[in-house]
Design goal:
Layout (H helix, E strand, L loop, with lengths): L1 H30 L5 H8 L4 H29 L1 H24 L4 H34 L4 H30 L2 H24 L15 H35 L5 H19 L2 H5 L1 H21 L3 H15 L2 H11 L6 H30 L1 H27 L1
Helix pairs in contact: 1-5, 1-6, 1-7, 2-3, 3-4, 3-5, 3-8, 3-14, 4-5, 4-7, 5-6, 5-14, 6-7, 6-9, 6-13, 8-9, 8-12, 8-13, 8-14, 8-15, 9-12, 11-12, 11-13, 11-15, 13-14, 14-15
């Protein structure tokens, strides 16, 4: 029986891989400038930390704004055309990043191009990533939803880790604005390859139902309790993605991209090894453990000020955040039914986008006012509120 289950798992994984590779491409593109943009805005364009954090977080506001349209288009048109359009937006984002680097001497023009590039990339993430999840669920069946979401997360944060490492190395080729130009070229080529691959994969038809689709506002209310817990846990990720490079630069520590890569690699390993625990011990239990570990990682960052401790804190934070989304996501998405799976996934993901989008400028303001220690203490407190919310969910489930 165990041999048969292992064979079935391998078969499912092989079917997931082609489509999930599209998700990997879009997240490598997201990771490429992650450690470079805050430094470019702060050191090359001479803007403050609030603007630097905002430049990173702007992507997530666009992702948030486009989730509803992504979910509805997937449910009505099927996931393939949505994925193709998302990757095409990624091409536009890369071209604008290239222009932002070339126009660095004209600060307002460079900032405008960079901001529009981030908005386009956020829209690309929303459409391509959500479509990849639903596309694979339709290919392998709803019984494998947790596995699909887990593989999407592995490629998401693995892609960010890989992209951040590559991007940090490429940024040295031209130095300052020249590095951003190089990243813009790579960020244009990769989604172009992804678009060609997506067109080659077989499509799946949208599900037809007699009942009308549930309004997005109702879907949003259904996933709200789980989404609030996800939002609390996502602020820790926002601190890592928006502020870790600035923290290293302020302390004059090298290898900020390496710390981001460690965060992503630990995230991937934990999700790969422990994702099945969601089905074994329950989503709420996994979420409680995960948020506890994430809180510990943020406290390490707060109270142990060294490059090695910061890298360790980022790793522990990544380990904790790894399973928060699938642990709560499987429970949240099932509440809306198969007909509204795309909308439910989009609505649930809104909480991730909104939390990270707000955290960039907010945490930049905390840094400006009170420093980096206060930043990580604040994010640890928010993550602890996520633990409280999951405990409420657990009590409600018992009742």
């Amino acid at each position: 029986m165990e041999a048969g289950q292992a064979q079935a798992l391998r078969s499912t994984t092989r079917r997931i891989m082609p489509v999930v590779s599209l998700n990997l491409i879009i997240y490598v593109v997201i990771g490429l400038p992650m450690a470079v943009i805050p430094i470019f805005v702060h050191d090359v364009l001479h803007c403050n930390t609030v603007i630097a954090g905002f430049a990173v977080s702007l992507q997530y506001f666009a992702t948030f704004a486009s989730r509803a349209s992504a979910g509805r288009r997937i449910d009505t048109q099927g996931p393939k055309p949505v994925a193709v359009l998302g990757l095409a937006l990624g091409i536009g984002s890369g071209l604008l990043l290239l222009v932002a680097g070339l126009s660095a001497a004209l600060i307002p023009v460079s900032l405008l191009c960079l901001f529009i590039s981030r908005l386009a990339l956020g829209w690309a993430e929303s459409w391509a990533s959500t479509a990849a999840i639903v596309w694979n669920i339709r290919r392998v069946g709803s019984a494998n939803t947790a596995q699909v979401i887990s593989w999407n997360g592995i490629t998401s944060y693995g892609g960010i880790a890989l992209g951040a490492t590559i991007g940090e190395q490429l940024s040295h080729l031209g130095g300052g604005w020249g590095g951003l130009v190089t990243l813009g070229i790579v960020s244009t080529v990769l989604p172009a390859i992804g678009t060609a691959l997506a067109r080659a994969y077989p499509a799946v038809a949208p599900i037809k139902h007699d009942a009308p689709a549930m309004p997005f506002s109702k879907v949003f209310r259904l996933v709200l309790p789980h989404g609030c817990a996800l939002a609390a846990g996502s602020v820790g990720f926002g601190a890592i993605s928006s502020c870790l490079a600035l923290y290293f630069a302020a302390e004059r520590w090298p290898d900020a991209a390496q710390a981001l890569a460690v965060f992503g690699m630990v995230f991937v390993i934990v999700r790969f090894v422990f994702a099945r625990q969601i089905g074994r011990i329950g989503g709420t239990n996994v979420a409680l453990i995960s948020l506890g570990v994430e809180t510990l990682g943020l406290l390490i960052l707060a109270f142990l000020p060294s490059a090695e401790a910061a890298t360790l804190g980022a790793a522990v934070t990544g380990a904790g955040f790894s399973l928060v989304f699938p642990a709560l996501g499987v429970l949240a998405v099932d509440r809306a039914g198969a007909q509204n799976r795309g909308a439910a996934l989009g609505a649930f993901s809104v909480f991730l986008d909104l939390a990270i989008g707000i955290s960039g400028p907010l945490l930049g303001l905390v840094i400006h006012s009170a420093g980096y220690m206060a930043l990580f203490i604040f994010t640890a407190c928010v993550t602890f509120l996520g633990i409280v919310q999951v405990l409420r969910l657990k009590r409600a489930a018992r009742a």
